Amino acid sequence: MKAERNITAKQLAAVAVCTALIAVCSQITVPAAVPFTMQTFAIFFTICFLGEKKAAFSIFAYILLGVAGVPVFASFGAGLPALFGPTGGYIAGFLLVPPCAFLFGKLTGKSPVGKIVGLVVGLAAVYLFGTLWFIAFSHSAGRNIGFAAALTSCVLPFILPDTIKLILGILLGNKLKKLLHV
Q1: What pLDDT shows up at residue 1?
Q2: How far is CA 31 from CA 71, 74, 122, in A?
Q3: What is the rounded distance in angstroms from the CA atom of residue 171 to the CA atom of residue 153?
């Protein structure tokens, strides 16, 4: 039987700092139908820095803070209305990224390429979940937005910036993980 490993104070502090980083990066925003933020950078960084399991806790804590009313979502949004608004699916979709990175990493023998593929698949899952949510929200608000139109406004403009944020998150997260031994 494998012994359970307790989280250290240093690791717990790292989870808290990454949760705060996600909240801060969510405020670095360029307004749009789906705002451009540095939030995705923070998600990728957190996964590479903490590892998938602790990153999932950090992302979940970020979402819980927002639901509890702390203004951590983009443009200082908070509460259930922000989570259940047009972009709430992207926020909730962030919970899909750590399992994708973990799964693809495991399937490839913990290869760095597998983790990168997992992060890309996780981002694609965020795009899909968030876009479907955006469409459903738009329909409930009386606007008939189709899948192609939603992709055009909610995904296509983000592919290049998110690719850059993914690369930066991987590079910085891995580098700091080695330096700080988290």
Answers
A1: 47
A2: 16, 9, 24
A3: 29
Instruction: Kindly state the average pLDDT of the residues 102-118.
Output: 81
Q: What is the CATH number of domain 9-176?
A: 1.10.1760.20
- With a CB cutoff of 8 Å and minimum separation 6, the contacts of 159 are none
The domain limits of the chain are 9-176
Nearest to 87 by CA among 42, 29, 44: 29
Which residue is listed with tokens 């307004």? Answer: 31
Total-model pTM: 0.91
Q: What is the mean pLDDT of the chain?
A: 91
Q: What angle do CA 131, 106, 25 make, to 5 degrees?
A: 45
Give residue 141's pLDDT band: very low, low, confident or very high (50, 70, 90): confident
